[in-house]
């Protein structure tokens, strides 16, 4: 079957569409239908902003908790050095 430029019958268009679909199937080309489950750009960036906000909050909380735990660090070391001279436990027999 030869196709001329002027031949635009629906049958030829169907044949061409089917040939293209077959090539896509054989070559494992990704189509829009394959990507339907993915989020849109807006949905992706909205979720990304939420995640980055949570990460920022976690980092700030971690820093606050770290400062709280080690805030009296020097005082605690001095008290321990008084109890344990020469950095050793005293042994009682």
> Helix content range of the residues, please?
55-70%
Report the sheet-strand fraction.
under 5%
Main sheet summary: none
What number of structural domains do the residues give? 1
The arrangement of helices and strands along the chain is: HHH
The average pLDDT is 79
Shape: rod-shaped
Unreliable spans are: none
Count of discrete alpha- or pi-helical segments spanning 4 or more residues? 3
Helix/strand/pairing category: mainly alpha
Give the distance, in angstroms, between the N- and C-terminal Cα atoms. 108 Å
The Cα radius of gyration reads 36 Å
Please explain how this structure is put together.
There is one protein chain. The chain has helices spanning 10-27, 41-70, 73-83. It has 93 residues and is mostly helical. The protein has one domain. The longest helix is centred in the middle third of the chain and has 30 residues, at 41-70. It is rod-shaped, with a radius of gyration of 36 Å. The chain starts with 9 loop residues before the first helix and ends in a 10-residue tail after the last helix.
């Amino acid at each position: 079957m030869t196709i001329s430029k002027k031949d635009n019958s629906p049958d030829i268009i169907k044949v061409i569409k089917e040939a293209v679909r077959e090539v896509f199937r054989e070559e494992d080309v990704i189509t829009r239908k394959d990507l339907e489950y993915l989020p849109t750009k807006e949905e992706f960036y909205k979720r990304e902003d939420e995640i980055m906000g949570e990460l920022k909050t976690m980092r700030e909380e971690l820093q606050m908790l770290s400062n709280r735990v080690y805030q009296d660090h020097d005082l605690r070391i001095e008290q321990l050095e008084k109890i344990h001279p020469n950095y050793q436990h005293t042994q009682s027999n």
